[in-house]
Amino acid sequence: MTRKDYQVFANLLAGENAMAKHNNSNASAIAVLHNLMLSIADIFANDSPQFDRQRFYEACMKGEKYHEPRE
To answer: pLDDT at position 65, please?
Structure first.
C-alpha cells in the first residue's frame, strides 16, 4: 500500500470519529472506532516498516495527540 492509501483510511476514521463525537455516541461505539484504528495500524505496520503509527493515529483523530497505552 502507499501513503495515499493510508491517508484514505485515516480520513475515513477521522470522519467516523468526528461524527461519533458530534452525535454524542456511547462509549462502546467510540471504543469500537478506537480498536478499529489500532487494528488497521497493525496491518499497515506489517505492510511497511516505515509506517508511522503516531502520525496515522493523529490523522485519524484530526490532530489530537494520541499515546498508546503502555503494556
So the answer is: 66
